[in-house]
Structures are given as C-alpha cells and as structure tokens.
Amino acid sequence: MILDYPSTRESRELAKRYGYNEFIVRRWINFFGFEETVELIEAMERGIPKHIRVNTIKIDEKDLVRRLEERGFKLEKTEVPFCYKVVEEPYSIGATPEYLMGYYYVMEKSSCIPPLVLNPKSDEIVVDFASAPGGKTTFLAQLMNNRGVLIAIEANRERIQALIDNIHRMGVLNTAVVHMNAVKFCNLGLKVDKILLDAPCSGEGVIHKDKDRKKVSGRKDIEFCSKLQKELVESALKSLKSGGVLVYSTCSLAPEENELVIQYVLDRFEVEIEDVKWGEPALTYIPNYGKLDKDIAKCRRFYPHKHETSGFFIAKIVKVI
Asked: Is 251 a catalytic residue?
C-alpha cells in the first residue's frame, strides 16, 4: 500500500515553486503539516553543513582537530561522538593529506549514528548488509577496536572497489568484503551477533544533494524499495542469534520505507524495539492509514531543517527468539 492524498492548491503551488513532483509535496503536507513542509523544502534548497567522522584507528581526536585547524579549517564538535561539523574550509575538506591518510571520513552526521546505535563489540561477529562506499563499515571497525569479525556485504560489483579502497585507507583489518545480495545471506546458515542495514531507499531525504530526486522519487520508487527493505530485514532477523541486534536505517522520509517496515517486523517476528538516543520520535499515526504500534516512537527521524543533516530514519531492533 502506497499512501496518497488529494492534490490541493497549496501542494500544487509549492511543488511548482520548487520544482517537485507534486506527489512528494502533498504527502509531506499530510505527514508533517504545511508550515513544516515549507521549512523542510527550504532547508533542502539551502543544503546542509559538511561533517567529518574522526578515525581513531589512526589518530587521536584532539590531534586531528589541531592539525586541521592549523590548516585553516574550523570545526565544531557535535552531539554525536567522533563527529564534527565543518564550519569553515579554506579548501575542500576531502583534499587534505589527513584525509588521504585515512585520519577521517567525510560523512553526514545522521550516517554516523547507526553504527553508534548498533554498538558493536571487539569479540562479536557483525555484518554490514549494504556496505559501499564504506563510511559506516569503517566506523563499525573503529568501534570494534579493529578486532572481532566484520563482514561487509555489497550487492553492486561496481561499488566494491570504492569500499575496499576506503577499508584500506582507514586502516581497517578485521573486515571481509563479500559480493552478494544480502537478501540471500540467511541461506548461508550463519548466526551473527549484530547486523547493520542501511537499506537501499527512494532517497527523499537527500534531495539537498541530488536535486533529480525531486522528480524521480515517486510511487514506483517507494513501492520497489519498500518490498526490498522487508526482504532484507527478514534475511537479517533470520541470521541473528537470539538476543542479537539489528539497526535499520534509511535516508528516506516515506513512512512506507520506515515506520511501516518496522510495523511489518513487529507483526511477524518476536522482537523488541529499543530507544535511539538522537533525533526525534518516529511517527505513530499516519493520516488515512491509522495508528501504529506505540513502540515505534522509540525509532527516530532526522530532518535537515531541525538537525542539520539529511532526512533520515533509524530503528534498533532486538531479536527475542
């Protein structure tokens, strides 16, 4: 079921003014309200600040900040561990010797959060279900102190080299890269401790850096992604040990890819949803759909106009049985 709502004068005018597929705009108005939708769209137009994640496998946080400030960069520590906002850059933050040496990774603040929520340990078997280009994978390795076993899965062969390059650049040693569709991972018969699934999605949350998504993101995109996301989540839950943890995330604002995927899981699996520290509570009521399980409020949403990051969704799911 893909949610849709009647076209209105407000939705048509807003879509025309900013060059959006009106389907997206009228849905946002129903989900978030008109004023909030305007703020969201305007934030997408402005863009968001750059952020970096310090790689403590190779360098101490304070040492990196000092080195970059000596080069003329101004950084601001965020509420997310190891993540800094780039306030001023005399030249591209991705063109420093420190970047090339793997001392940090240029990644959005919201993307730093799923590995922290998963909280992988040095003695665990951890799987990243959609790894390339490697920002979250290399952060997982960092949080594991470069120990344990980390399996990085990537379905798209063309993206694997970038993943491998980043693993080498960041000094990661505990990771095996596997080319496969993670939907089939459950067929291997492995039982692992933790899984990160930053799922393929329609990308409504990254319109600020990909303006084409104003037009291409629509009913078919959401329908395709929602089906794939459910298949990936099922594969992940079947692959976890009892008590294992799955962190599910998307860069989408569509409930069909977020809250409704979690509702699907709650209806079919023995799981519990745990609180996520950052962001704001996920939706528990959707117009023309109805109420969702109250525990879905423990999942979190992020918005560019509120959190200086992409539109994002994160859920922490614990397998009970």
From this structure: yes
